[in-house]
Amino acid sequence: MEETNGLEGLADELIRRAWVAKIRQRGKRPVLEVSNPKTDGTRLLTEIVTCDGETYTLPGGQAIGQVSDVVATADQVQRVLRNVGQ
Question: pTM for this one?
């Protein structure tokens, strides 16, 4: 439940910023699928974020932020997806 609550908070923040964010079930764990809405139309830049109730992580276990600081984590997600597209 803590995982979903953390993901919901991050999803809400990213949606507020006009990004695409959807919670999906992947196996037994919920994940947040985040997409950069500002792509060239040929490909959608997407990242998967997980949460253990305290820390947000990217695939491979890279920590990107704390549940206690959703705004800074949303900033980090946006930086990651902007860098991928450049």
Answer: 0.87
Q: Are 3 and 29 in contact (CB under 8 A)?
A: yes
Q: What are the residues facing 21 on neighbouring strands?
A: 34
Count of domains observed in the chain: 1
Residue partners of 22: CB distance under 8 A and separation at least 6: 11, 32, 33
Domain of 31?
2-84
Average pLDDT of each block of 10 consecutive residues along the chain (86 residues)?
82 95 93 84 80 94 96 94 63
